[in-house]
Design a protein that fits this description.
Helix content of chain A: under 10%
Number of strands of chain B: 11
Strand content of chain A: over 45%
Structural class of chain B: mainly beta
Number of helices of chain B: 0
Largest interface: A-B, 24 and 24 residues
Number of strands of chain A: 11
Shape of chain B: globular
Distance between the termini of chain A: 39 Å
Distance between the termini of chain B: 36 Å
Structural class of chain A: mainly beta
Radius of gyration of chain B: 13 Å
Helix content of chain B: under 10%
Order of helices and strands of chain A: EEEEEEEEEEE
Strand content of chain B: over 45%
Oligomer: heterodimer
Largest sheet of chain B: 7 strands, mixed
Chain lengths: 122, 107
């Protein structure tokens, strides 16, 4: 059964870069059928898609976050990572890694990580 | 960017009743690429419906989705105690956006 697990610091200072990694187990990140993405949820609020990556390294990002986001993939480790620069308190959220389909008809999220809380504070 | 507006914000019902949740898009959602998710406190969301009306694997048939264009609906025919949660819609026809959620609470 495919599982996703987020890891990274739970506390980041304002203006610094948030870095998280998602480890994929029970399946290969190099599958030709899926994208791997990041979604976040501020406390008490709704979901916000951040961006996604294909195993080849092809990415697409939310227009509102594009200038600050970098998503990368390491197929040898079966991992993908998120970097969000110049963070502010508004970036405090639970960050989820997720899988969705490659084809347009399949780009709903069918596997989620458990989520990791990141707090931006000095 | 397509904006999704869910209504109502909170829905108070009793077990056994029928729930109707709405998701309205600011532009037409191409090919009905709309999904619904259920989220319980402290948990990740769970996929319920994709393609506006197809149930995900293992989802009970009391959950159904309908709609096209800009108006979509999630219906829970007879509420079970475990159905009380927050529900989100997502469109994936033009990038990805989520609605703000509807909280379904016990009356």
């Amino acid at each position: 059964q495919l599982q996703l697990q987020e890891s990274g610091p739970g506390l980041v200072k304002p203006s610094e870069t948030l870095s998280l990694t998602c480890t994929v187990s029970g399946g290969s990140i190099s599958s030709s059928d899926y994208y791997w993405g990041w979604i976040r949820q501020p406390p008490g609020k709704g979901l916000e898609w951040i961006g996604s990556i294909y195993y080849t390294g092809s990415t697409y990002y939310s227009p509102s976050l594009k200038s600050r986001v970098t998503i990368s993939v390491d197929t040898s480790k079966n991992q993908f990572s998120l970097k969000l620069s110049s963070v502010t308190t508004a970036d405090t959220a639970v960050y989820y890694c997720a899988r969705h389909g490659l084809a347009a008809a399949g780009r709903f999220v069918d596997v989620w990580g458990q989520g990791t809380t990141v707090t931006v504070s000095s | 960017e397509i904006v999704l507006t869910q209504s109502p914000g909170t829905l108070s019902l009793s077990p056994g009743e029928r729930a109707t949740l709405s998701c309205r898009a600011s532009q037409s959602v191409s090919s009905s690429y709309l999904a619904w998710y259920q989220q319980k406190p402290g948990q990740a969301p769970r996929l319920l419906i994709y393609g506006a009306s197809s149930r995900a694997t293992g989802i009970p048939d009391r959950f159904s989705g309908s709609g096209s264009g800009t108006d979509f609906t999630l219906t829970i025919s007879r509420l079970e105690p475990e159905d009380f949660a927050v529900y989100y819609c997502q469109q994936y026809g033009s990038s990805n956006t989520f609605g703000q959620g509807t909280k379904l609470e016990i009356k």
